[in-house]
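To assess whether ligand presence alters the predicted conformation, the chain was also submitted together with NAP. Input:
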Amino acid sequence: MGKFTIVARPDELSGRLEKQVQNVLEKHDFIRDDASPETVIVIGGDGTFIYAVHQFIDRLKDVRFFGLHTGTLGFYSDYQDCEVDEFLDVLIQHTGTEELLGVLRAEVDGKRYYGLNEIRVENAARTQVMDVFVNGVQLETFRGTGMCVCTQLGSTAYNRSLGGAVIQEGLDLIEMAEIAGIHHSKYRSLDAPFVLKKDSVIRFTAESFRGALLGVDSDVYSLEGAKNIEIKICQARQIRVLHGKKVSYFDRLKDLY
Ligand code: NAP
Ligand code: MN
């Protein structure tokens, strides 16, 4: 029968639900297998979902994710804690359908990083000067704190705080937004969020990325010594997400603010 694991946010409600979910599933002959699960049950928020996916980022073909949101609605889960019975029925009755989500891939001098929400270049230490290329064409020389490249699902996260547009579900696009760009008589860059086709390739190059970090969802990596950063939607990796019902995108959005 089905092998599952549970990734739960460390709070009281999520912990209680983890025990309940495990008990019910084991009564129905499911087996908890943290090492090689088929289903990763995520109990918590969107942040927890992203954390869980990163735990399996090199094994995305082998697992599917199923989210139970504790608190508000969220973008990565269809069920709230008050709907746990309905949530469990999807697994027990095998009524769910799978959706594939794309991930962003950054390649920095041969090393690869994967992001669900966004990938950022951020320099809080000094003005980052970098050339921005889209599909091999030089768009601009950017000066400022950095750039945020997000997915449709990530458009409501960091991107939204930057004044980026919220992208409706079903629109498979990527968006690039400036982080505190400097604009005056000597320097200028687009200074507006840019929505791009899903197969666009974005490249940042700089004389130096000293002091800059590569932000990948909730993780950061030093860009010390890096020269070239390429970001695009990864063809080889997709996230399998289980859905049991249709939740209105507008209800999710209304729950956000
Ligand atoms: P986190 O506490 O896990 O997340 C920060 C907040 O962002 C939480 O309230 C989380 O919702 C929400 N969130 C995550 N993904 C979202 C999405 N796709 N749409 C709408 N809201 C979303 O913090 P973290 O672990 O450091 O970072 C995870 C993500 O948080 C990052 O990918 C980034 O986009 C976002 N973040 C935003 C800012 C900002 O806006 N200034 C700063 C840092 C990080 P839940 O409560 O449901 O988990
Ligand atoms: Mn969170």
